[in-house]
Amino acid sequence: MNTPITSVAEMQGVYGAYSFSEHLLQKIWLRGDFDRAGAITTSGERVRILHPGQWNRLGGPDFKNARFQLGDGAEIVGDVELHLRAEDWAAHRHAGDPAYARVVLHVVLFPPAAGYATRGGAGEAIPILSLLTLLRHDLEEFAADEAIERLSSRPAGRIVEELGVLPLAELSARLRSLAGARWRQKVYFARMRVQRLGWDAACHQTALEILGYRFNRSPMLRLAARFSLESWSAGRLTVEELLAAESEGWSLQGVRPANQPRTRLNQYMAWTQARPDWPKRLEDMGKTWPHVSAEAATRDVRREEGIGGLRTRLAKEICGEAVGGSRLETLFVDGLLPLAAAQGAKEAELFGAWFHWFPGDLPPLVPQALRDLGVVTPKQQSAINGFAQGLLGWWWQREATSAASEGRGA
User: Fold this and answer.
1) Angle, helix 337-344 to helix 278-287, in steps of 10 degrees
2) Is residue 261 part of a domain?
3) What 3-state class would DSSP assign to 374?
């Protein structure tokens, strides 16, 4: 039968231990949230993934009726089994289970030892594909995003019950500290992306990822890798071509009109053509950003530093006024400000502005919980990115600790 979703790998992250589950690995495979063009089996055969298969939440292999090609060979149709480590196939005795007789690809997170082979019931070798080096994000980023997705389904009352026992001053200080850790984590990941891709490509990939988040992040990332920023800004692409390039990857069900792929692609097309040099503009702006204290009152900072006017100017000068609303705020707090800090080595200076910035897209219970806890009030404090990020950081730590405990007991 399927491996329990509590099967996890516990690892040390930038700011503490965290867990990565097989269930999350399955979601990454389903979404194609990795470099599919670089997929190569451990025996050196290139894998062309035509369809990941149907996610099987019952007994048997994790994905049914997947379609792919090995090298220049014919199309292969069969099942796919996923594990964190290749050795788990034998540990779970899948070779002797008839339910796994149609498995034609073994997808694992960590690369197996040299020469290791997954064997089927008749002793035949099953191709192994390791995803670790193909992932577009650090494992900790994936795990944090997964924890925040789970937060969307939780009642705000449970959060208030756990945090409401703290005095307000102590709670506010704790959330500020957690926000600081989350900021440093975002800058760290942004720096890793810049080192891997270069500045312009890192900006390009980040912008498309956030415009596609959360349902269409993966196809947006694939478009970013396939089509350079210059090809967008030069007008050599059309939205119809871009939609067709990921025709099987888009998720449309349950996606609001404002987040539909066509809308977001049109926005980025307009953005890049209005500001083809936007990464350079962002880099220059990061060097002259106002240095404010995260300890100061947000209302005072916003008034004295003109944060609202700065936001308007950035929306025009960097994004060409192509993006607005909460997605614009998400672009800045999750992408552009961490990138500017990573590139300009002004991490500490930019933290205050990031803390006092306007929050972006959040699970609805986050602002509700902050109001119920008294951290933000209509009369004293408006919505603040830093406190929202601190609450997300608290939830991430809570989930990581819980998952690690479950994994040790599984």
Assistant:
1) 70
2) yes
3) coil
CB 373 within 8 A of CB 163: yes
> Do 75 and 184 fall within a single domain?
no
- Alpha carbon 174 to its chain's center: 25
E strand segments, 115-258? 118-119, 125-126, 128-130
Q: Residue 84 sits in which domain range?
A: 35-134
Residue 226 CA: distances (Å) to CA of 38, 204, 245, 268: 12, 11, 10, 15
Per-residue model confidence as pLDDT tens digits over 183-222: 999 999 999 999 999 999 999 999 999 999 878 999 999 9
Q: What are phi and psi of 269, to 5 degrees?
A: -60, -45
Answer yes or no: pTM beyond 0.90.
no
Look at 77-81, 374-378, 388-392 and tell me which has the smallest mean pLDDT.
Answer: 374-378
Task: Tell me the residue type at 365.
Answer: L
**Confidence class for position 14, pLDDT limits 50, 70, 90:** low
Picking from 111, 134, 157, the residue at the C-terminal end of a domain is 134
Q: Structural domain tally of the chain?
A: 2
57 cis-preceded (ω within 30 degrees of 0)? no
Of 34-38, 154-158, 223-227, 228-232, the range with the lowest mean pLDDT is 154-158
Residues 6+ apart with CB under 8 A from 115: none
State which of 119, 134, 149 marks the end of a domain.
134
Q: How far is it, in rounded angstroms, from Cα 52 to Cα 18?
A: 27
- The answer to whether residue 41 sits within a structural domain is yes
Residue 284 three-state SS: helix
User: The tokens of 326 are what?
Assistant: 């909460």
112/166 same-domain check: no
Q: Is 160 helix (H, G, I), strand (E, B) or coil?
A: helix
343 and 222 assigned to the same domain: yes
Q: Which of 281, 301, 282 shows the shortest CA–CA distance to 291?
A: 301
**Residue count (the chain):** 410
| Alpha-carbon distance values, 74 to 49, 105, 106, 126, 266 (Å) | 12, 15, 18, 16, 37
Is 3 a member of any domain? no
Helix, strand, or coil here: 297? coil
